[in-house]
Amino acid sequence: LDAQHNFMRNVSGGRLTHPSIPSNVIQSVADVATGTGIWLQELVADSAYSGRVNGSERGFVGFDISPQQFPSTNDHPPNVTFVVHDMTETFPSEYHEKFDLVNVRFVSYVVEAVEVEKVVWNTLQLLKPGGYLQWQEGDACDSWSTPETPATLAIVNHVISEKVARGLLAGVVTPLIKAIMAFSMDVPEGRHNPISRSSDLMRITHIETISTLHHPSPVVQASKQLVAVTAAIMLLESIVARKRVAAKDPQLSKLMQKLYQRKCNRWMTC
Predict the structure, then answer these.
(1) Which of 118, 120, 201, 202 is the most exposed place for a label (fewest CB within 10 A)?
(2) What is the pLDDT of residues 110-147, one digit of tens each?
(3) DSSP 81
């Protein structure tokens, strides 16, 4: 997870937050699916997010479904806390409308396609009126590897087909944007937007697509194949289990072959 973080930070030009987000007004930050908490802890150490806001100390909260990778209490500042929570479930009301900035990254490998809208809604409930949602994902249609050898392309094809077989999205960006926009609405005068009580419209302000093919960062170039292989390894166990089952069931085997071929064809047209 830390390697993925370093990869994404370098892809983003060394930034932890988008330059359009004014750090001087961000008092409270949530990191959903925080993992080891590395993004949150590096943000705390960033001079742009140090100091007080309107006389109050900044607060940082990391959420994850498991505490297994949380840092120990002695390894993070007292204004950073870590909370066990499944993002597919509604967050406790004490966290609703509490955060000026909510960060989400790389959840397309764990969130099923049918849960995307639910996760988006649960995440939006964390935002204060006028708050910022920053969401970063890696799309499986990007081969991530240079040069594009038959071996690296095969790895990506396996990742795509296995994601689909597990009910995940092969390409997450478009469905994610649609899910966010589904909760954007014009509200009649005198009525409240359930997402923002101070604004009549929630809207996407920036969408950036960054290709790694010719990225200038040597860290990105060195890490691309590692990221692809890591993703493949994550899915390897279920791939093997499914193929063992399919080998015993000719009908299931044929279905898997059709699914795999369809996803490979789709990838070739991305």
Answers:
(1) 201
(2) 888 899 999 999 999 999 988 899 998 876 555 444 45
(3) E
